[in-house]
Amino acid sequence: MFPTIINTKVQPFIATAYHNGDFVDVSDADLLGKWSVVVFYPADFTFVCPTELGDMADHYAQLQEMGVEVYSVSTDTHFTHKAWHDSSDTIGKIQYPMIGDPTGKISRNFGVMIEEDGLALRGTFVINPEGEIKVAELHDLGIGRSAKELVRKVQAAQYVAEHDGEVCPAAWQPGEATLSPSLDLVGKI
After folding, report:
1. Strands 133-139 and 122-127
2. What is residue 167's DSSP assignment?
3. Which residue in 17, 41, 70, 174 is deepest, having the highest Cβ count within 10 Å?
């Protein structure tokens, strides 16, 4: 499923999240009309996961300024998310919704479920306002992700969406030159 997920629509789901001191319903409809990032991680109260989610919390304001909402998802329940949020200084700074996926439906929809363990891989997905997946990235459980690099990828996805006919080369940063694919560029890069 994973190789074909780019440019597909997010599949329907509804779940409960812990968000800003409350339990709230979140569904695929909440991802429409704005850019979204969905970050899957294996489990609460673990080792690499809090470093990633804390890093994301540190970049959350920047992503919000870019019109992006972040959702973290694990196969834990929303109750476990609250307990972790209340007991960890790192997780306590999270302001984005923490979605519980105890049945694994959302994890399966995104192709990140490790069936034999009942856990999600480290998967990151950037979704455009139309609900289409534009970036999909998977990591082994022992390899943490960088929110700074994710911000750059979102910036590139937003730029490409707003500038028809332009593409962003490797390591592109906002303000740098882009490419306009054409026959004239073939073999010249």
Report:
1. antiparallel
2. B
3. 41
Residues 26, 31, 39, 49: which is the catalytic one?
Answer: 49
What is the chain's length? Answer: 189
Grouping H, G, I as helix, E, B as strand and the rest as coil, residue 100 is strand
Mean pLDDT by 10 residues, the chain (189 residues): 81 98 98 98 96 98 98 98 98 98 98 97 98 96 96 97 94 93 78
3-state secondary structure (DSSP) of residue 35: strand
**9: which 2 tokens?**
């629509």
Structure confidence by residue, pLDDT tens digits, 30-48: 999 999 999 999 999 999 9
Neighbours of 172 (CB within 10 A): 18
Amino acid at position 172, single letter: W
Q: Which residue type, as a one-letter code, is found at position 143?
A: I
